[in-house]
Amino acid sequence: MAYPMQLGFQDATSPIMEELLHFHDHTLMIVFLISSLVLYIISLMLTTKLTHTSTMDAQEVETIWTILPAIILILIALPSLRILYMMDEINNPSLTVKTMGHQWYWSYEYTDYEDLSFDSYMIPTSELKPGELRLLEVDNRVVLPMEMTIRMLVSSEDVLHSWAVPSLGLKTDAIPGRLNQTTLMSSRPGLYYG
């Protein structure tokens, strides 16, 4: 759960979110190093009066500043592609939950069981109890097992919606007439808002 004035991501609850956090840190370090190098070069150029004209025209320098960015882009792209593949992979789900977005509520149906469906409405601000979170509390929560692969089928009845749980690293669009699919697995028990 996020807390007020938080600067980083929420704590990871799924293996996918852990991978996303590692990728974020990896990419941020590359961006930090590039920014530091560029700032250092700019400060040198502004403070130094001496220029060496033969290095400005050198073929080796042009080759380096052409090949080095390509290598950096590969170092960013390969982990990104691996995570995209992991997010799209479905491994024999133990449970399937169908989620339908409506104008002001979500409908959930456990498709592996007969007649197990319910609607989840947001609790109005005037009816909240102390300690409950405004715009996040609902009357019927979705209960899912941990350490099991769960397939979520997400669609909408009326307009575009977004079904998201940040601590699990999930965000899927609910589009009318289209059935989107995502997989989740929680590695620890808890109450996760989205």
From TrEMBL:
Q: How is the cofactor bound?
A: Binds a copper A center.
Query: Signal peptide position in this chain?
Result: none
Species the sequence originates in: Bos taurus (Bovine)
| Recorded superkingdom | Eukaryota
Q: Name one GO molecular function term.
A: cytochrome-c oxidase activity
> Keywords for this entry?
Copper, Electron transport, Magnesium, Membrane, Metal-binding, Mitochondrion, Mitochondrion inner membrane, Respiratory chain, Translocase, Transmembrane, Transmembrane helix, Transport
Q: Which residues form the Cytochrome oxidase subunit II transmembrane region profile domain?
A: 1-91
Protein name in the entry: Cytochrome c oxidase subunit 2
Example of a GO biological process term: electron transport chain
Identify the GO cellular component terms for this protein. mitochondrial inner membrane
